Amino acid sequence: MIQETINIALFQLDLVWESPAVNRAKVDQLLDQLTKTTDIVFLPEMFTTGFTMEVAEYAEPVDGETIRWMKKRSKEHQVAICGSLIIEEAGCYFNRLVFVEPSGEMRTYDKRHLFTMGSEEKYFYRGTERTIIQCKGWRICPLICYDLRFPVWSRNRNEYDLLVYVANWPQSRDEVWNTLLKARALENQSYLAGVNRVGVDGQMIPYLGNSQILNAKGRRLADAKVGEEAIIKAEISYAELVKFRTTFPVLDDADTFYIE
After folding, report:
1. 87 φ, ψ to 5°?
2. Pairing relationship of beta strands 138-144 and 162-167 according to DSSP bridges
């Protein structure tokens, strides 16, 4: 059964470089500020460490401290929590998005498009499958940062209602972030949430954030103040989405793409 409206929150964080315990504590403080009506919280890419390539030092197992913490906090606050971190599995490292629900159920997505200009592909294995998550009847497609540049991978084949990008997207390409988020919402006729970090990382790369929630017409429902930590929230309506898709059925005319 579909819950007609869901309330989503994006945590725009100034991540402390390579400091998992400190970053988890930051999230704890913000979770305490949430109202009980919040259904899902989205955190930036690599929210425990920032975009580090020190994978052997900071990787966690699938039953590691951060995932145990996510499950515990999700149950305590009765809210789903989603973000990516470095996961080691069978000797391989993944930039893995983890989505946990209060019930303890967990779904994952491994970043497909690894950022070659940052040498990410030298340290991580790329994902091979897209994940569609069911939460309160809503279909959610979670992707990670550089995935935003690849529209075929993001293509909605009537599979999802909410498209999500968790990111460490730098200030130097801020205009690209804003442009592509709007494009992905419009072309996929979907709600969209883009959550990015702020501050300066350990490689002296600055981030502006510009986290935002868009509707299927590309209009901003909520956005964060540039450069500052913030929680942004929006209530999104399934009936409104269905009405728009019915009266203007763009997806019915879309080309078919397949990725091998």
Report:
1. -120, 135
2. parallel
Question: Which residues touch 198 (CB under 8 Å, ≥6 apart)?
Answer: 12, 13, 14, 207, 208, 209, 227, 228, 229
pLDDT, one tens digit per residue, over 80-91 is 999 999 999 999
The confidence score (pLDDT) of residue 1 equals 86
List active site positions: 45, 111, 145
CATH topology of domain 5-253: Nitrilase/N-carbamoyl-D-aminoacid amidohydrolase (3.60.110)
Dump pLDDT digits (tens) for 190-241. Answer: 999 999 999 999 999 999 999 999 999 999 999 999 999 999 999 999 999 9
What confidence tens digit (pLDDT) does each residue in 158-173 have?
999 999 999 999 999 9
Stated pTM of the model: 0.97
User: 21-41 burial, b if ≥16 CB within 10 A, otherwise e?
Assistant: eebbebbeebbeebeeebbbb
Query: What is the rounded CA–CA span in Å between residue 185 and residue 192?
Result: 6
Q: For residue 231, what is the DSSP state? A: E
CA distances from 207 to 12, 24, 100, 196, 198 (A): 11, 19, 27, 8, 5
Tracing tokens 């002296």 back to the chain, one arrives at 204
Q: DSSP alpha helices (H): ranges in the chain?
A: 20-31, 55-58, 65-77, 151-154, 174-188, 238-247
What CA–CA distances, in Å, run from 247 to 27, 37, 100, 139? 40, 30, 34, 20
The residue extents of the domains of the chain are: 5-253
